[in-house]
Amino acid sequence: MKQWKIVQFNVKNAFPHGDLKETIYMECPEGYTKGGPGMVCRLRRSLYGLQQAPRAWFEKFHGTILQAGFVQSHNDPSMFTGQNAQGNTVLLLYVDDMIVTGSDTERIKELTQSLHAAFNLKELGEASYFLGLEIHRSAAGLLVNQQKYISDLLEIAQFVDCNPCTTPMEQNLKLTHEDGVLLEDQTFYRSIVESLIYLTYTCLEIAYVVQVVSQFMGDACTTRLDAVHRILWYLKGTRDVEIFFPADGEPVMEAYADADYAGCRDTRRSTSGWCVKIGRSFVSWHCRKQDKVSKSSPEVEYRSMLEVSTEMVWLQSLF
């Protein structure tokens, strides 16, 4: 991984920048005295709350970034790249938040000026916190974690003072739809599992058990809730663990894949698990139940290899 500078921006009031293609009217705001009774206002710009507002904003941003000489990725619509003799520049957009990185610092400055001219842009400096990800730079590389996100989750779940454990699940954990007693209120279970799914972006070691507990979002019971509690105990003791992206090393892609055979007691379907490394860094990982029942163990392994091969092709196509 190269030591490229990563800067972060935010567009204030992003949606009103969008241009409306439809004819839309709204009631006059309270206190507006122009016109007579029954008069309405015609919208010229999109507003928050309109169904087409997100699309209108993205189209506006899309046109602006293309005029700046960037190209939209065919495989990730939120990524835009610019290439010239001086190097590469990459922009990632999420609603009104964006990060920009690249080897051409002058191109980044020019892009910043173009965005300032088009939008009410706020510069947030070197990226340190983006969508729940905490980013720390050192001479050796980048460190990424979700420590604040985990702390907030433990506080919401009232597990701040719990005793940590060293593993995220019991050995040979097998949950079925016939286990335990159904919970009267399943809101807590669903909200915690949804947060755990987002944590798998940096906590790859909980990917398998989170995949297991997420299968019971519609019929959570006591045994499944115990499994969720165990994950929270584990996170209490490992929330300061970070993913390291070293600055040195060759960007060679490697992948590892494995699968069980008919591991699900309810459906007899198998579960695939894989991870992809570039250089010495893990960049992608996933764990999911396979779509179909396999007839043999080799078939299960082939399906798992197919999944990770697809991911590798997609990663290579980004640049």
Automatic annotation (TrEMBL):
InterPro entries: DNA/RNA_pol_sf (IPR043502), RVT_2 (IPR013103). Residues 2-170 form the Reverse transcriptase Ty1/copia-type domain. Pfam families: RVT_2. SUPFAM superfamilies: DNA/RNA polymerases. This is Reverse transcriptase Ty1/copia-type domain-containing protein. It comes from Linum trigynum.
